[in-house]
Amino acid sequence: MTVIVAVRYVLTSGLFAGLTARRFPGRLAGLRQQVWREIGWSLASAAIYGVPAGIVAWGWQRHGWTRIYEDVHARPLWWLPVSVLVYLLLHDAWFYWTHRWMHRPRPFRIAHAVHHASRPPTAWAAMSFHPIEALSGAVVIPALVFIVPIHVAALGMVLGIMTLMGVTNHMGWELFPRWLVEGRAGCWLITASHHELHHQRYRCNYGLYFRFWDRLCGTDAGLGQFREAPARR
């Protein structure tokens, strides 16, 4: 499972880092040392994420401990999309409050400063965490599969969304169209423009998928501006 998580990270972050370099040739200029540091921390995080994922896979396949199911008709079909939303909402709540706690002086100094060393963040920073922070993020989805029923395909979708959002929110440019980011839906969804401001100001925009908790708790500072790429010579 560690290898799977690591390969998923390298392929996804590598894809979007490549897109960044192609679309904005100067965006990553002078960041080679930072990128290698991000990759190193992310691969270490992959090892930590792999442990609970491996336990879940073993418990599901060998012992039936989890509430993951394979027969699509085992539960009402409407539960498929609803379960994805439930997982995202619960994960988002966990992330918001643990992330906000990580910004208290002592946890920040000990752990979260590793992630914020990425200034500006790149696509490689998606899993660039101190082991303490990686552990806090690695347990939530594995814990949920023991509590909330979910089809294996829906779980795959949750993991796919988690990976996509983690990478695209750090890559330094907006993947999604302006009408979505600045429209009504964008008022509730977190994209790169929103998370970029968190890496600039720190004390705002803590959410992962949705802006609900930020708006409710008064920590939503809106959308940020991306770092200008150096002029090409």
Explain what this protein looks like in three dimensions.
The chain has 233 residues and is mostly helical. It has helices spanning 2-23, 32-63, 79-102, 105-116, 131-138, 140-144, 152-168, 178-181, 192-201, 212-217; strands spanning 68-69, 150-151. The protein has a two-stranded parallel sheet with strand order 1-2.
Please sum up the structure shown.
The protein is mainly α. 60% of the residues lie in helices and 2% in strands.
Poorly predicted regions: none
Shape category: globular
Structural class estimated from helices and strands: mainly alpha
Helix content bin: 55-70%
Beta percentage is: under 5%
Secondary structure tally, helices: 10
> Within the largest sheet, what's the order of strands?
1-2
Number of strands: 2
Computed CA radius of gyration, to the nearest angstrom: 18 Å
Mean pLDDT: 92
Through-space gap between termini: 44 Å
Taking the sheet with the most strands, its summary is: 2 strands, parallel
What's the helix and strand layout?
Elements: H1 2-23, H2 32-63, E1 68-69, H3 79-102, H4 105-116, H5 131-138, H6 140-144, E2 150-151, H7 152-168, H8 178-181, H9 192-201, H10 212-217
Helix pairs in contact: 1-2, 1-7, 2-5, 3-7
